[in-house]
Write a structure and sequence with these properties.
It is a single chain. Helix 8 packs antiparallel against helix 19. By secondary structure, the protein is of the alpha+beta class. The protein has a six-stranded mixed sheet, covered by helices on one side. It has a five-stranded antiparallel sheet with strand order 8-7-19-18-17, with helices on both faces. A two-stranded antiparallel sheet has the order 4-5. It has 19 helices and 19 strands. The protein is elongated.
Length: about 500
């Protein structure tokens, strides 16, 4: 009798071990290969019908799964979709998942490796599987303020970042769209929405242009030229730079003109302070010709250009110097040194460059995710600031900061000033060689800067592509001043 009981217990334990082992294998070791199997249609349908965790901003859901009366038990819905489309991306039964929905999919579905025991508990208890919540670093007030600064019909991007932690405070772009249109379970409605949206010029359905799209950076690239000059040892804070009205090249009919605005025309030699205050072209082109392409490229890479892989957590489009041309001739290097020709940068890259100067030369990894929590509100992970690289020395960063303060106090970024606060900034105007209907030259108009300069708390970077000079001036520095004030009041 006792032997029979013992045998029964042995069989029961063996069966339990086999069951537990099978569940462990499927839920832990084989889950990735099974989920990624293209023939696993059941898993695909289940994924799009599951109770996916919410995406939060300031504790409020900007994306959530709600019950439905269709074959799918749940459908993804978005709140304030125009405001957050570039960040959340969308989760579509017919097209896939993008943005945070893609980058944080394992946490949102509860299928991450560290959720193994949660999945085991759900199997044994029969509880409805639930994903984890992902809270973003975004400040909803600053996000809305920045979004409203971009005029409809013009478009552009704004990035607001904490230079000390890398956290993204706001990231907006226009044109935007209603992500609910893509989350529908109605194939006919989805197709109609897709056809309508892709026809809108400048729209990006799969992430924000603020981190996916690149633009000629124009004169904001002169920050890199300045760092390269000081690091070379051939220049210092007292150096006097050539500042001719144009830079000519032997044997060819081309001349690089100085910046037409500001006060560049008033002197043929300039200090670094004057050249940056007025965004003079020829001094920085001369520096690049003196140091050579390799030195400028090396400095650009120290700030994050030409990096092929960067996630925050979605993948960031690479910024390029000098671009696809390889070895540059003299005119090409001169143009590239002022952020023209094939040089291209995302707004996020320019924000990171400026944040490195603000942070004593230390560039922090950008991050959009503040916390991840289980359905019972247990914190699984939280933002941990990470140093990406040392872009320049603390001494050089401090010197460049002083000159950027002078750009606001005495130069062409005066509209970015904040009473009682030292603001450091640089503007940029990248000529596109095109005219609008009124005959005005079109440019990418840039602003990048930080405040307070003596204890940086916030970086603001703005790009308004394809605008005339006057419009660009109205939409960049004055709006940056408003954003500085709003963030610093918090």
């Amino acid at each position: 009798m006792n032997q029979a009981i013992r045998n029964s217990w042995i069989v029961a334990i063996a069966l339990f071990a086999l069951l537990f082992g099978s569940i462990s294998y499927v839920q832990f070791f084989a889950v990735d290969s099974l989920n990624d199997n293209p023939n696993n249609n059941r898993q695909l349908v289940k994924s799009f019908c599951s109770d996916r965790g919410p995406i939060l901003v300031d504790g409020h859901a900007i994306a959530a799964s709600v019950p439905t009366n269709t074959d799918c038990k749940f459908q993804r819905t978005y709140n304030d979709p125009l405001l957050y489309a570039g960040l959340t991306g969308f989760f579509s039964k017919f097209s896939g998942q993008y943005g945070i929905e893609w980058a944080m999919r394992d946490q949102l579905t509860g299928n991450s490796n560290d959720a193994f025991f949660d999945r085991i508990a759900q199997v044994f208890t029969g509880a409805q599987p639930q994903g984890r919540s992902v809270e973003l670093t975004i400040d909803s007030t600053i996000q809305k303020m920045a979004y409203d600064m971009i005029p409809d019909g013009i478009g552009g991007s704004i990035v607001v970042q904490n230079p000390k932690t890398g956290a993204i405070i706001a990231m907006v772009s226009k044109p935007s769209y209603d992500t609910n249109l893509m989350a529908t379970h109605d194939k006919t409605a989805f197709d109609a929405s897709m056809a309508k949206l892709v026809a809108i010029p400048g729209i990006d359905l799969f992430g924000s242009p603020a981190y996916r799209e690149t633009y000629a950076p124009g004169s904001v690239f002169k920050i890199i030229d300045t760092a390269a000059a000081l690091e070379s040892g051939k220049y210092n804070k007292d150096s006097i730079l050539p500042n001719p009205a144009e830079l000519t090249f032997p044997g060819i009919n081309y001349a690089l003109p100085n910046y037409a605005y500001g006060q560049c025309f008033t002197r043929d030699k300039a200090s670094f302070a004057f050249a940056l205050e007025n965004s003079c072209n020829t001094p920085f082109a001369s520096i690049a010709l003196d140091l050579g392409q390799d030195a400028i490229s090396a400095q650009a890479e120290k700030f994050g250009f030409n990096v092929k892989s960067l996630n925050f957590p979605d993948s960031v489009g690479p910024s390029r110097f000098p671009g696809s041309q390889g070895t540059l001739d003299g005119p090409g290097l001169a143009q590239s040194a002022i952020g023209q020709l094939n040089v291209a940068a995302t707004p996020l890259q320019i924000s990171m460059m400026t944040a490195a100067i603000a942070n004593g030369g230390k560039q922090m990894a950008p991050n959009l995710v503040k916390t991840v929590r289980t359905p019972d509100l247990k914190t699984v992970s939280s933002l941990t600031p990470e140093v990406l690289r040392q872009s320049t020395t603390p001494e050089i960063a401090a010197q460049i900061t002083d000159w950027m303060v002078s750009v606001v106090d005495n130069g062409i970024a005066s509209a970015a000033a904040v009473p009682g606060v030292k603001v450091a900034a640089k503007t940029g105007t990248a000529e596109l060689g095109q005219l609008d209907d009124a005959g005005n030259s079109l440019n990418n108009s840039w602003f990048t800067g930080f405040a307070p300069a003596d204890d940086p708390q916030v970086v603001v970077t703005i790009v308004m592509p394809r605008v005339d000079v006057a419009t660009g001036a109205q939409l960049t520095s004055p709006n940056a001043s408003k954003l500085f004030k709003a963030v610093l009041k918090k």
